[in-house]
Specification:
Elements: H1 3-26, H2 31-53, H3 60-86, H4 91-98, H5 101-113, H6 119-136, H7 152-169, H8 177-199, H9 208-244, H10 248-260, H11 266-283
Helix pairs in contact: 1-9, 1-10, 2-8, 2-9, 3-7, 3-8, 4-6, 4-7, 5-7, 5-9, 6-11, 7-9, 8-9, 9-11, 10-11
């Protein structure tokens, strides 16, 4: 199987696992408690592995760039989504807002990175968004009162993840994922520890269910999800990687059925099929009109799995 296909499948499956891990963890503790211990554990595991097997001197510029990227990609994105849901925004609504990222990425990729987005890709992105709407439509009509500004948080989360995609592609001192992700986790651990300590939620529960959720999110969502995300950015570019995000709500539904017995309805099943069609159109082999312009020298880098 080609590397691009492996990376794409890994991204969709592992990124989707994060929503299941959040469900498992927030059944046991507040969201900020889960996020704090998730990233403390990830920083210890990945940082320890880096110290043993990858230890090398990192350029100061690279550390500074990856600190910002980590704060946005994990702190900004996860914090915005989880905070919004905690304030009462239906998870489906939050997912739909976050799914605007591929359209925004397509609109900005040409201007910022020289990635030409073809008509076929635009159609695929639009179809994919419609599929996501079908998948999450059951959550779009919540009746509980929600503070209006809370709906801005998923937009901020989407913008944070989008910004990291462009910052990573234009980094002047890029790092391989094995060097960057431990640093991202350390930055996120500090951020979420500050939030949890401020809110008085730092102490973890004693039950094993919480630590199972922490292990799940560290192994699958952090190492797997973010690892495949950065690899996909480097192999496939911003537009194609962002389009794959459309497949995460349908895949999450499959995860939820397997883990919790939550069977998707007919509309959700139809939406899954629409998502697949949209992503197939958006990520298909580009024609002559959709060639990607040569990347600047700073964007060419070693790819280490």
């Amino acid at each position: 199987m080609p590397v691009t296909a492996i990376t794409s499948v890994g991204l969709v499956v592992m990124w989707s696992s994060g929503f299941i891990g959040a469900e498992l963890g927030t059944r046991e503790a507040p969201a900020d408690t889960l996020l704090m211990w998730r990233f403390i554990a990830a920083a210890l595991v990945l940082g320890g592995g880096w110290t043993l097997f990858r230890r090398r001197r990192l350029p100061l510029r690279a550390v500074a760039e990856q600190t910002v990227i980590g704060a946005l990609s994990q702190g900004g994105y996860l914090g915005g989504i989880v905070w919004a849901v905690g304030l009462g925004v239906p998870s489906g609504t939050a997912a739909l807002i976050a799914a605007l990222q591929p359209l925004a990425a397509g609109a900005l990729a040409g201007r910022l990175l020289g990635e030409t987005v073809s008509t076929r890709q635009w159609v695929g992105l639009a179809i994919g968004l419609g599929g996501v709407a079908l998948v999450v439509q059951g959550d779009l009509y919540g009746t509980s009162a929600v503070t209006p500004w809370a709906y801005g948080l998923p937009f901020a989360a989407m913008a944070a993840l989008l910004a990291t995609s462009f910052l990573e592609r234009r980094a002047r001192a890029p790092l391989a994922p094995m060097d960057a992700i431990p640093l991202h986790c350390a930055v996120s651990a500090v951020l979420f520890a500050g939030v949890a300590l401020t809110g008085g939620h730092a102490a973890p529960p004693s039950g094993g269910g919480f630590w199972f959720a922490v292990g799940w999110t560290v192994a699958l969502s952090t190492v797997g999800g973010y690892g495949f995300y950065w690899l996909s950015l480097r192999h496939s570019g911003v537009t194609r990687t962002s389009a794959l995000i459309y497949l995460t709500p349908p895949t999450t539904s499959v995860w939820a059925y397997a883990m919790f017995g939550e069977a998707p309805g007919a509309a959700a099943l139809a939406g899954m099929a629409v998502c697949v069609l949209g992503v197939a159109a958006a990520t298909g082999r580009p024609g002559r009109s959709a060639r990607v312009s040569p990347e600047p020298e700073a964007a060419r880098r070693e790819v280490v799995p």
